[in-house]
Structure formats: structure tokens, C-alpha cells
Amino acid sequence: MSTMDIISNIRIGPRLLIGFIIVILLMGLVGVIGFIGMNSISIGMDKVYSDGTIPLLEVSEIETSLNSIRALVFRIVAIPAERTQDYDRITSEIQKIDEKIARLKTVSLSPDVQQNLKKFEEQWNAYKSAAQGVFSLLSEGNTNEALVSIANGGEHSNARRATVDTFEKLKSGILAHAEQIAQEGQAEKDRTVPVMIILGFLAVIIALGFAFAVTRSI
Q: Is the CB of residue 108 less than 8 Å from the CB of residue 51?
């Protein structure tokens, strides 16, 4: 017995009901697959933001604060009259960097970036201590020692350069990590969207085929 004969032996009422049920099930299947696909894309985009964009924003602000501290250290040597307020600004920038480092520790980073972050934090601790030390020397009247510290080969100069070098590696690693996450998100979208389109198309074909078969059998 053929499929058409089986369909013809079913009464019209149940036949139409079965057809509607099949169409509804196909529509539901497409909807579920679409929801899963869109949810997967949404998760990927959230990851791009949380693990890619936020770290880039943090390192950008760290870089701004590092440049500010460098300029302010030279200001407290060159402009004694504004020394106290410049030191307060240095303290504020130091606090900002400490906060940014703490936030970076909460973000999902690649092992290489985590290692660079750890090294940067160690060198940053030495650098901020040296920057504060310059102010302490000046406050105690040890101007010559403060000048030696900020000159080439001095404690502050060496700590600053080591910190900046490691920071550049950290920034490059975070940028590469962000690009990788963005590529993964794009790849997920490229995989999901065609599957949704194909399944939707197949569902329509199956529904039309069943509708045609039921119509032929009436």
C-alpha cells in the first residue's frame, strides 16, 4: 500500500488535523532552533564585550595614567610651588591603575596575557614606589638624589622603562586576544545562520509536500 493510499484511507477531519499538527511541529522546531542559534550568537557577542572590549578599555586607561604619572614626576621636580598638588594627582593616577589591574584580574584572559599581567603588576609596584620616592626625596630636601633617580640609569627611570616595556607586551596580548574572540564570534554566527536558514527551508518544503499530498488525496 502506497503512502497516498494510506492518506486516502484517513478521514478528512483527522487528515487535516494531522496536517496542522505537523505544520505546527515544524514551525516549533524552526523556532527552537532559531532561539538556540540566536542565543549562541548572543553569548558570543557578550564574550566579545566582556573578554575583549573591556580589557582593551582598561589597558587604554592604564596607558593614559602611566603617561600622566611620568609627566607629573618631572613636574614635581621642575615646579616646587605646585609639588603638593601634583603629588596628589600622582596618587590619584596610581589608584586608578591599581583599580584597573584588579579589574583585569577578573576577566577571562589567555595564559600568555595573564602571565604578562602578573609581570606588569610586579614591575608597576616597583615603579609607583619609585615615583613616590622621588617626592619623598624632594620633601626631605634631597634634590640631587631625586634628580639621580629620574635620570638615565636611576631607580625611577629604570623602573618606569621596565614597566612600560612590559605594558606594551600586555597591551599587544590583550589586543590579539580580543581579535581572536571577535573572530570566534563571527565564526559562530557564520555557522549558525546558514543552519537556521537551511532548516527553515526544509521545514517549508516538508509542510508544502504534506499539504500537496493531503490535497491530492481529497
A: yes
Rg (CA), the chain: 32
Is the model more confident about 184 or about 125?
A: 125
Q: What is the pLDDT of residues 131-181, one digit of tens each?
A: 999 999 999 999 999 999 999 899 999 999 999 999 999 988 888 877 777
DSSP 8-state secondary structure symbol assigned to residue 82: G
Residue corresponding to grid cell 493531503: 214
Residue matched to cell numbers 514551525: 27
How far is Cα 192 from Cα 171, in angstroms, rounded to an integer? 32
CA-angle at 41, arms to 105 and 55, nearest 5°:
20
Determine if the pTM surpasses 0.70: no
What is d(CA 69, CA 93) in angstroms, rounded to the nearest whole number? 7
User: pLDDT band at residue 193, thresholds of 50, 70 and 90?
Assistant: confident
Average pLDDT on 5-20 reads: 62
Residues 6+ apart with CB under 8 A from 123: 159, 162, 163, 166
> Distance (Å, rounded) from C-alpha 132 to C-alpha 160?
12
> Alpha carbon of 159 to those of 148, 162, 163, 166: distances in Å?
13, 5, 6, 11
Rounded to whole angstroms, how far apart are CA atoms 48 and 84? 42
- Position 102 scores a pLDDT of 93
Using alpha carbons, select from 54, 47, 51 the residue that is nearest to residue 109: 51
